[in-house]
Amino acid sequence: MRLSVQAEAFDLGAEANAFAAAQSGAGAVVTFTGIVRDNGGTLSAMEIEHYPGMTEKAIGAIMDQALDRWSLADALIIHRYGRLAPNDLIMMVATAARHRADAFAAAEFLMDYLKSRAPFWKKEYGTDGAEWVAARDEDEDALNRW
What we know:
4 helices; alpha+beta; single chain; four-stranded mixed β-sheet; 8 strands; Aldehyde Oxidoreductase, domain 3; four-stranded antiparallel β-sheet
């Protein structure tokens, strides 16, 4: 299990290949990558803040739950913070399990948690100024299904 909360960009291909290569006995690897979205073409940047230590502890606890619940062989989460531009990679989740159903379910669970409950605060900067990103009902609904 590896968790990295970092300002630096990551190489998606290298991370996915290294994660998959480290799996022996897993029959499935699932990866998901989040990208900074520019809805409407007005976003110039997104600033992501977090409290070091608290963020890693909270995400680590949810990773432990996923490992136990779906009998995962391994999991990886990379989440960036700082100032990001549209189309930058913001996060990556990878899961490995003996069977694909467990790998997919655990990856979705982790993504839903990261989207709605992980202790990150996001501010979007655009042509109309800056505003904090509010929680969305759809994200809460997705997490509540677990």
